[in-house]
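thoughts on these tokens:
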Amino acid sequence: MKGDAPVSSGAVQNPRRGLAFWFPAALAGFLVLVLLPALLVFPLAQVLTSPAAVAAAKQKQPPLPFDEAGIRYGAIQATGPVEQLAMRLSRGEHALTPGNHGYLLPVLEALQVPRSSQILVFSKTSSDKDRISPRTPRAIYFNDEVYVAWIPGAQRLEIAATDPRLGAVFYTASQKADAPARLSRNDRCLECHTSAANLGVPGFLARSVVTDDRGAVDWGRGLSYVSHRTPLSERWGGWYVCGSHGNQTHLGNLVGGADFDRQAREPNFRGNQANLSGLLDLSPYPEPTSDIVALLVFEHQCHTYNFISRLRQDTEATLERGGAVEADTYLKGVAEAFIKHLLFIDEAPLSARVQGTSDFGRSFESRGPRDRQGRSLRQFDLQTRLFKHPCSYLIYSPAFDSLPRPMKLHLYGRLWKILGGTDPDPAFRKLAPETRQAIREILADTKPDVPLYWTL
């Protein structure tokens, strides 16, 4: 085999003796090098939700060394709105006034995170799990770059932001009303937020689990890491969900084994909830909702940012070795998987109309940008798929914009060919010609850094 050391012709004088020696050694080698790693990796294989992650496993890519040269996660100062707010607070240039929810609402306002994005998770899957329960779910609020988590009565806020260089960066803020608000970076969160589930980079997690009556995860009944590829029938275990979704089923609003057993007998048990008033007391929360459309966007966004971070760090590693994007088979494979994700080629279809119960959808769509015909990548479809024009709005994000130029040129070249209908890959036939044309025209009008040939 290529790379094996040569064997001396005199190494085995007696065939039987050689067999007696080499067979146990080979068996031991198999157990140590193949079977044991397989047993260790097998659970992770269940949570790889991206073709890029599968490709990385096949290529045996090593884990990314976050604190070594090239990445240096702990040594590099983050950028973005959370870091900027933290600096303004530390210098006394900005002050936050606590209210009924502590510093939650002032932080949301300062970071321009809409209250209507509120989604509620009652599974005990956070470091503050002792405070989380079906009666006191953890509320998460988000915009394109920031996530804020709050639990009634908790002593701190948890905040995460996507950083163009570092990926996910985590912060905490004390909720003590007698102390000025401060945001502190907390890299200990990487103990859970760097795994195969988020493609091996500092990233975000969206999970669907079965819980008992207290919200504790029933590991024996399964765990799913969720993205837009996940069928609705497997989503939202451990979450509250309100909104309509027709005859489609999901695992939201189910608390304890009895609820899940009843769901198996009565599809859509606790589905299509117009409100959550019959399930818990929502008076402690800023909003009376856990919007189904916000959940759909949240799951797409979490995994897409993980994908961008993986692509960036793999590209930087290749370029630092003197490699080239177009000459690296592995890297082009990751890029191709990302393109398919970006264009929702792998999206689980909707079979009925989905409608939220908050202002989240309208607020999200209003943020644009729009092309000269008034079209936007933020426009929802919500009948057969999430977006009307299926190309992720995160193509406008600082994380995407900061990808190394050789990779961006490669991605734009692939998008041009795919959206022009000249790419032979049958996977892209999922996009109707009029859909491909609309996406190409929107990007040409709204993405200033596309190559010149996009606008001719």
Remarks:
- Residues 15-45 form the longest helix (31 residues).
- The CA atoms of residues 123 and 129 lie 8 Å apart.
- DSSP finds twelve helices and nine strands in the chain.
